[in-house]
Structures
1.
Amino acid sequence: MNEATQLLTPLKAPVPPMFEAALGYQGDARYVAFYWQPAGDEVMYDDGHASGDGDWWAWIEFENHSAVAPHLWLPCPQCGGRGTTNTLENDPCDACDGSGLLPLNLGSSDFEADHWLILDRQERKFYVAPIVTARRFLQEQWPPPPELTPEEEQTFFEAIQKAVEELRHAWRPPGAGELEESVRQSMQTCTEMVAWLDGQVEEGDTRSPSSAREEK
Ligand SMILES: [Zn+2]
């Protein structure tokens, strides 16, 4: 898996311990991606097997938090982060205006994402990657499906059908009280995440985009 993460760009944003819980991801994959989708205007998670919409308020708090926002930049592809494409005259690069950085696009109400934010839940690290790379990376974290004989396939298929049928009988719509409780819990986790991020700012982390470039 370690060579695999070489395809991804590490992001230095702090990783809240309750990040995926606040965002509403309940799966057990090691790597899971998050991004904003303009259709429906919601935050999405995708672990390569399961995807769905998460808790949008937690994403908005995260993305705009002063401990996180200064890290949401990428080296400008046109000048390779140097700020100029003309080293002799040192003219500022027109793609990034000479800053060497471009804002990371994880999606917004108006624009489709061109990168996904990937969380390594084991090492507690963030990465970003262009969507195609991210998608392939997330799918590759799962073992390939086993080769089945036609008989095994039939047995498997029948077992799935049976399970679906059982679920259909057992399912009851959640009551208003249950829904309310689930939203309340999710908001509580979000509040804890913001408090944790506030703590990261107080530790004197005031990196700006320009100093993020110097670290490169
Ligand atoms: Zn540039």
2.
Amino acid sequence: MIGLRRIGPDEFTLRLDAVLHVYTEAMNPPADQIAGRRLIMGNHATHPAFTCLFAERADGTPVGIAYGFHGVPGQWWHDVVRRALVEKHGEGSARGWLGDALELAEIHVHPDYQGKGIGRAMIAGICAGRLERTAVLSTRDRPTAARHLYRSIGFVDLLTQFVFPGGHERYAILGTVLPLDG
Ligand SMILES: CC(C)(COP(=O)(O)OP(=O)(O)OC[C@H]1O[C@@H](n2cnc3c(N)ncnc32)[C@H](O)[C@@H]1OP(=O)(O)O)[C@@H](O)C(=O)NCCC(=O)NCCS
């Protein structure tokens, strides 16, 4: 039996090992990137209106994690994506999508628990009750389960084949208007 539980920034910071475990199992990142990811996640917990859900087994072990926060200028992802949106679609579009946005930073489900509705339930739970106008995120621009899931929830492509500075993978930047349908 899996339950969803809201986690505040303090508990999130204390449970970073468990968060990283789910992340590592789900994403299988190169080992030399994990320490950097840990620092980035720890910093995310300090962002405004941080919200997180753990999907937990009955014994309290997290098997899914999802979190986001209010995007503001000065945050790396926000600034990079804003610049790219201005370039591609103009200032009005960038302001419309990012001016009052919940930025969904991470959503991962342990492979043993994927395909059971946990990812969909966590996104709905993270977005529920948020006061922002939009929700935005980035995901690899490939035919993944994540891409399928986001599209089915109502996210649309804002940018495709986007390469973050210093990276090489191609990403899609997606957005939807809040509240989510249904
Ligand atoms: C993306 C992810 C969070 C979705 O979580 P989940 O609990 O597996 O998703 P759900 O069970 O809620 O399923 C959502 C949809 O994705 C589909 N899906 C799930 N796993 C799939 C897979 N391996 N291949 C294709 N579709 C898949 C489901 O069929 C479902 O679609 P449907 O409702 O139309 O049938 C999870 O697959 C994951 O952690 N993936 C690896 C890490 C990742 O890519 N994270 C997102 C980074 S942006």
